[in-house]
Amino acid sequence: MSKPVGCKRWAIAEGYIPETSNGPEPAMLSHETVCLLNASEHEAHVEITVYFSDRDPAGPYRITVAPRRTMHVRFNDLRDPEPIPKGTDYASVIESDVPIVVQHTRLDSRQAENALMTTMAYADRCGS
Amino acid sequence: MSKPVGCKRWAIAEGYIPETSNGPEPAMLSHETVCLLNASEHEAHVEITVYFSDRDPAGPYRITVAPRRTMHVRFNDLRDPEPIPKGTDYASVIESDVPIVVQHTRLDSRQAENALMTTMAYADRCGS
Amino acid sequence: MSKPVGCKRWAIAEGYIPETSNGPEPAMLSHETVCLLNASEHEAHVEITVYFSDRDPAGPYRITVAPRRTMHVRFNDLRDPEPIPKGTDYASVIESDVPIVVQHTRLDSRQAENALMTTMAYADRCGS
Amino acid sequence: MSKPVGCKRWAIAEGYIPETSNGPEPAMLSHETVCLLNASEHEAHVEITVYFSDRDPAGPYRITVAPRRTMHVRFNDLRDPEPIPKGTDYASVIESDVPIVVQHTRLDSRQAENALMTTMAYADRCGS
Asked: Which of A107, C55, C81, C114 is 20 to 30 Å apart from A12, CA to CA?
């Protein structure tokens, strides 16, 4: 089998969960998502560390992604070890024991019509 | 002739076709697109595999891009071997036998005004 | 002096100039832009080739960026050797004789409120 | 301890602070942001140089990011050595003495509903 696609460490410098929303939940709730793709044949054990501007980092938040599956995780839904406060600047580092692919998305419905943005995360440790 | 631009494997971790739309079709139909650029002198034989959160992957979806052409493929329009369900998280891996460039876009018209997002896909196998 | 930032070849797989607009021109005219940054001490001689789905490529469009300057070029404004048709899928390859940085943006005002998207282009020939 | 994530030089080719806004400030003020993540154990001394289309670059703007912290800096708020004019095309190069991760965002509220866009910056000097 060929080498699985992706890298073992990723980073997202932007993070902000808007405090308000318009439209039906859960689809139109303002949210930020980290999309994880594990195209490998092995379970991916993922740890997310969340950085802030004025306090020590939170985490790690532990997530397991089954082989050949994707998981789109809303930062809004992270609870253990602690929820991420709304209306607060943050950033995140995502580490995995098998190569994965990571993409970041925000749906912002603070005003009446939604706005969207996305980017691939910064990829690191792609050689192993 | 110089080496063609691009890579032979790409991945997109985000995927979601909204279930509803506003505005005139087909332009304003909510859709996700994978944009393929084949700047080489050879036909590109492309295979897309689609990953889900709770079932085995679908595909491969086979697409041929002529030399020195671009093709913008809506995930909404993929039919063979099976359509991609709306309102469902997915991700994709795109493989080609010649180097290509891959970019991902969503137009979301669930609310009255459209929203757009785009990113280059994650590039892999760029050295060959 | 340190090595200038950037690469000598870039590619953008997405391209589409909407046919309609809302709001005051030129700011709110639907447009796609290629943003070029030449942080080097030398003039950058840039050539853009535009690829289509159903005909041979157009170009090269030639642009000179002065040393230590940025230039944000609307695809809408390219005229020589030919304008880029609206409402048509395209893609582009950007080549420069000195390292530059290339980013792609679309402002879409087909509906009453504008939508924005951006991504860094795919970078190639970064080692020289 | 493992090697810190990121690179020592980054570039963003797009830059434009809209002249007008709709909605409550400061959240809905049209703005562009550079998001800096310093996941290392050392202070990051960051210098931003801003490039224009028709004049010499401005800066450097000096910013210190504490260890294990993120800082989201609005270009609107840069004052020393000079403010960045609104309604003007610009671009930026971000240099740091320790590896950091850099992402770019614009919230545009020129029309009644906001629009968002984001991308990771172009990464350079990642090997050291």
From this structure: C114
